[in-house]
Task: structure prediction
Amino acid sequence: MFTGRCLCGQSHITVNVQRLDVYACHCTLCQKWSGGIAMYLEACGQPLIAEHMPEPGIFSSSLHGERCFCSVCGSPLWFHLINSDYYFIPWTILELNESERRRLVLAAEIYIETQPAFWKLTGQYARLSSTEVEVMDSLGQLAH
Result:
């Protein structure tokens, strides 16, 4: 279990993350939401908002997903694939210690066809197009 908080500190979450595998998303919606590459950890189940915290804002950004954010400062809190139990948390909002940060591993880049040419991540990991990701989603083969 990890805790996290938004930029202003008003939204506190607790989330079960079992693997420190980072997924870098280059879709245009994540680019707009994050200001660049959105980098997520997959949560095991829905994140929990701490008591007495403001309810998160929810934006249905597509037919497939909704984005939850701090209703005070607007910081991203998680992305949820609708009709599934897939929740993706920006790793940067979690309170990770130095050892946990060193264990973060880039597992995949997704929606690579909309990745700007001026940024390149390096390493040995999966690079998937939108078509490949959507087929995996329809077959229930995403992460977990």
In short: The mean pLDDT is 91. The radius of gyration is 15 Å. The helical segments are 28-34, 98-102, 130-138.
